Amino acid sequence: LANALLELAAALADSGGEGDGAVDGQLVRAAVHAARAVGMSPESPDARLALAASLGGLHLHREELAELAWIAERRPDDPELAMVMEHALSHLGRGEEALVAARRAVEFAGPEADVLVRAQPAFALARLGRIDEALAELEALAASVAAPDERAVPLGLLADLLEEGGRHEEALARLAEAAELAPGDGYDWARGNLLRELGRTEEAVECFSAEIDADPDDAYALRDWGLGLAELGRTDDAETALVQAERVGPLEVAGDASLARAAIRMASGRGIDAVALLRDAIERDPIRSQLRHALAEALEGVGRSEEAAWELRQADRLDTIAEPE
Question: How far is 219 from 189, CA to CA, in rounded Å?
Fold first, then answer.
């Protein structure tokens, strides 16, 4: 197995090792080390579990499941192992077996099992298309959990399933319950995103504001609050929110906020300000092509066509690099 994985690593290296290939190459190398560890200690469940995890990361789920089955013979009552087996079986399309594994995980974990472990059968049922049963499981789970923050988890999962089924009002109601139980845990943010998708921007802005009241440094809520405020024409308030999102957020969020701030400036005839803002954003994140496309548009808008053309070429080059082969 180690030799086969080494051949896979070599093939990835020959393909250039960029983008997803680079990530896969790291996973292959981890799998090689794990396979060698199994070769040195073939009776070690821990070594085989590490190998199974690497194989699963490479989407080699048949091989992963073979390792997990070997471990299960030696650890028949391990709840974490049963959960990993459920995951592998689901990927292989063996849904009924995955459901059995999920129920075994709950059984082995006992009455004090983590709420996400107890939710696994609902996930398995949903993957089988048995949505009503999955919803009933999650409802029962929510009713059985005492701690408010833990009770919020199945309510959030219920909302996800309801939203997927187009039952938006029910999803919003579950998210509101979850947000009341666990303020600042992202449920108001999720509710705001759903409301915004439904075109109910004023309500969405209220939800984002509630999320920020509970967690003032939630960069995603700050960004989306700013975007919603901008849609409502409240540009000064939007600016405040977006600046804060730039300050506390990761590069992706900061870039989104910069794009929104630049759009506000361009819409109000402040193209030069938009150019300066976007140049600062590109200095922070030079490989995000969307920023350079926006800068090209802003430069064109203030009559600097040659600079705009150059930025557009840079953006196109970045887009080409990002495209999978």
Answer: 11
The model's pLDDT over 279-297, given as tens digits with 9 standing for 90+, comes to 999 999 999 999 999 999 9
Around 52, how many Cα atoms within 13 Å sit in the side-chain half-sphere? 25
Reported as half-sphere exposure (CB side, CA atoms, 13 A), residue 25 has a value of 14
List Cα–Cα distances, 58 to 29, 30, 111, 211, 322, in angstroms: 11, 10, 34, 36, 21
Under a CB-based contact definition with an 8 Å cutoff, are residues 268 and 245 in contact? no
What mean pLDDT is reported for the chain? 89
In this prediction, residue 24 carries a pLDDT of: 59
pLDDT of res. 53: 86
CA distances to 78, 110, 206 from 210, rounded to whole Å, are 41, 36, 6
How many other C-beta atoms can be found within 10 angstroms of the C-beta atom of residue 292? 24
Residue 171, Cβ neighbours under 10 Å: how many? 22
Nearest CA-CA partner of 258 in 245, 268, 269, 271: 245
Threshold 0.90, pTM exceeds = no
Specify burial of residue 112 (Cβ count, 10 A radius: 0-12, 13-18, 19+): exposed
- Give the Cα separation of 199 and 192 in Å (integer): 10
What per-residue confidence (pLDDT) applies to 23? Answer: 45
